[in-house]
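I hope you will forgive my troubling you with a question about protein structure. Here, with my thanks, is the record as I have it:
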Amino acid sequence: MASITFNDGTSATLDNGTTSISDGVGSRFSDWVPFQRPVGPAVTALGTGARYQFAFRTDYGASFSMLDIPNTSMGVMLRLQAHLLGGGTVSVATGDASARTYSTCCLAPDGDVTIALQDKSLLLYSMSFVLINIASTPSAMICEY
């Protein structure tokens, strides 16, 4: 079961409620794309065109979406959006083949968290994220279904 858990004063978990459909296949995250970015000043040598960078850290993150969220979860979605935009952290449970969980994630620099109406007739929403893993020993955010 893919889900995101957070605590903005009250603990809450967001999932799309389709964990019982096809052994939870419906609850998977969509469009999961991991990334790894060094953060620090970079220059390009004029003579060779080679890039040089002094990296202060490396951000390990992922962009992904949660689909088919019922309109009854709008309150939790809005709380989660405000929590992330305000600098809060979340725990991401991928529900993938390796049961990966990233317990300390926050909004990536220049990242966003958005809510969109996915299906007007069924009143289903999607929520998209760009997060980085800020655990004390961060690792690549991989998800393999």
Summary: Helices lie at 74-85. The longest strand covers residues 57-70.
